[in-house]
Each structure stands twice: as C-alpha cells, then as structure tokens.
Amino acid sequence: MLSCNNAMILTNKDGRIVHVNTAWCQLTGYSLIDIEGKTCKFLQGPDTDHDLTKKMKDDLMNDRNTAITVYNYKKDGERFLNKIIAVPIHGGYLEPGKSLSLNFFFGLYSSFNGFT
What we know:
The radius of gyration is 15 Å and the shape is globular. It has a 5-stranded antiparallel beta sheet with strand order 2-1-5-4-3. It is of the alpha+beta class. The chain contains 3 helices and 5 strands, in the order ββαααβββ. It has helices at residues 22-28, 32-35, 50-61; strands at residues 7-12, 17-20, 66-73, 79-91, 101-111. It has one domain: Beta-Lactamase (2-Layer Sandwich), CATH 3.30.450.
C-alpha cells in the first residue's frame, strides 16, 4: 500500500487480515506479524457496539460500502473511538454476462482523539 497518514487495512474475502499500513500499526499498537491472518475481532472489547459490527459485516457481505463509529481497543488495552469506512473490492477476469468476483475488503480507520 502507498504511504499514507490514514490507517488502512486490507482483508481477504473471509475477513482475514492480509495487510495493514504503518499508520494502522501506530493507531492500534499491533504489527502485521501480530495480526496477519486474523479477523479484526481482537480490536473489540466491552464497549464495542456489536450490533454495529454485525451491520458492517452484513453490509460488506451484501456487497455494500459501509461506515460505522465504534469503540475499539489498542494492544495495550486503551479504548479509542474509531470511525471505520469499509468497501468490498472485486477483481479478476470478467467474462461476458458474469460479475467480477469478490476478492478483498478495504478499510479506512480514523481515531477521534479526546473521545476515549
């Protein structure tokens, strides 16, 4: 991924982490080595709104862009308010009359400082 100040994450179609950028690692305290192949559930905690995380998952699985704002937790246990914008990414060879296959999900994370 390109260098960017925004925290970015890429997961496979099963929601398993494929890549995160440096800003994501700085925001959460995790390295790619810590979390590669896992789902993002490890960021959830007691104040995470699970109805919203379910909505996000449902939206993505139904091929819809989505955005939610939830409390997540850093590696050190610190809570942070996280706006997540996520989109499905399709790719592959397009045969006549067929849709592109779902390959990945891309997420952009924004933390709201002062709202912990």
